Amino acid sequence: MQTASTNICERLCNKSIHEIHLLLNIPRSIVSGIITKWKQLGTTAIQPRSGRPRKMTERGQRMLKRIVCRSRQLSAKSIAKDLQALCGLQISKTTVRRELHGMGFRG
Fold this sequence. Notes:
This is Transposase Tc1-like domain-containing protein. It comes from Staurois parvus. The protein has helices spanning 4-11, 17-24, 28-41, 58-70, 76-87, 93-103. It is mainly α. It has 2 domains: 4-41; 58-103. Helix 4 (58-70) crosses helix 5. The relative contact order is 0.10.
């Protein structure tokens, strides 16, 4: 079974975007995007994401929020130590501050 992107690329030589859209019953914007990607990269495969993966997982964020809500007077350094002891997540105090700021905690 062929995917829509393969079909679009195969039919690219003889058909317009509008004709492909009508043939495959796919929105024109998707057809156009696939054709543009094909022309730029020579493939329609998903490219690897850019940037470094996040250190904090969703579970780590929940643990962080629980620690902070329990005691609001803790320093970022002590929160980082607590996270390491509780779930083995080794992060810096700067990361703790950044994550808390993203969650809406200030100060």
